[in-house]
Specification:
The chain has 230 residues and is α/β, with parallel strands linked by helices. 28% of the residues lie in helices and 27% in strands. The protein folds into 2 domains: 142 residues, Rossmann fold (3-Layer(aba) Sandwich); 69 residues, ACT domain (Alpha-Beta Plaits, 2-Layer Sandwich). It is built from 6 helices and 15 strands. α1 crosses α2 and α2 packs parallel to α3. Bound molecules: ribulose-5-phosphate. Ribulose-5-phosphate binds next to α2 and α4. This is Ribose-5-phosphate isomerase A. It is an enzyme of class 5 (isomerase).
């Protein structure tokens, strides 16, 4: 590994990922500070004549895409997307990821699941052998969130209700987020299924079988990894 300058690496990987975009593509636009650089560069290419349409995965991305001149379309008005490019909070060598640090996991998962190809972009600090160094975001219904927290606590987890400037953080969809410290996830698929069965849970940040490609910025290089599962 090279010396880490994550902002430069985010920019490098975000800009490089725009090379994947071809004329007439319908693109899922992820959310976050790495995706910011992807959007900015894509906006430049659109102004130079590239013709694409995007589906935004958050209000933040919608605002950015509009400011960069990227044409947007309503998710419900489209069929399959050609490609989604999104960031991740952590990913392993099987291209499984934890997402949701930016709170957009619900839309991000919906859009990724409607895309022919999904690409994660990140800096090398996020690449891990085993998922679970970062807390896992779990999106819950505000009604009864304390009950859902209690159910997690009963199983030994210590969920933290996400805050934003002294108030409870609310997602674009009006939900709350519980950040659950993991200390290593041994069986991500089993955890995914278990969480989906928990009353009050809308979605969680385990993105297990979505990505076929990952762009990882490491120093001056961008390493491209492919999934063997896809
Ligand atoms: O999942 C996300 C938002 O819900 C982001 O993609 C993830 O948090 C990575 O963001 P960043 O590029 O800012 O580190």
């Amino acid at each position: 590994m090279h010396a880490v300058n994550t902002e430069k690496e985010k920019q490098r990987v975000g800009e490089q990922a725009t090379a994947l975009i071809e004329n007439d593509m319908l693109i899922g636009l992820g959310t976050g500070s790495t995706v910011y650089y992807f959007l900015r560069k894509l906006g430049e290419k659109v102004r130079e004549g590239l013709q694409v349409m995007g589906v935004a995965t958050s209000r933040q991305t919608q605002t950015l895409a509009e400011s960069f001149g990227i044409p947007l379309v309503d998710f419900n008005a489209v069929n399959e997307l050609d490609l989604t490019v999104d960031g991740a909070d952590e990913a392993n060598y099987q291209l499984q990821a934890i997402k949701g640090g930016g709170g957009a996991l619900l839309s991000e998962k919906l859009v990724a699941s409607r895309s022919k190809r999904v690409v994660w972009i990140m800096d090398a600090t996020k690449l891990v052998r085993q998922l679970g160094n970062v807390a896992l975001p779990v999106e819950v219904i505000p009604f009864g969130y304390a009950h859902t927290m209690g159910l997690l606590q009963k199983e030994g987890w210590e969920p933290v209700l996400r805050q934003d400037k002294g108030s409870i953080y609310t997602t674009d969809h009006g939900h709350y987020i519980l950040d659950v410290p993991m200390n290593g996830i041994h069986d991500p698929h089993a955890l995914s299924v278990w969480l989906h069965l928990l009353p009050g849970v809308v979605e969680h940040g385990l993105f297990l079988d979505f990505a076929d490609t990952m762009y990882v910025a490491d120093g001056d290089q961008v390493v491209v990894m492919h999934s063997h599962a896809k």
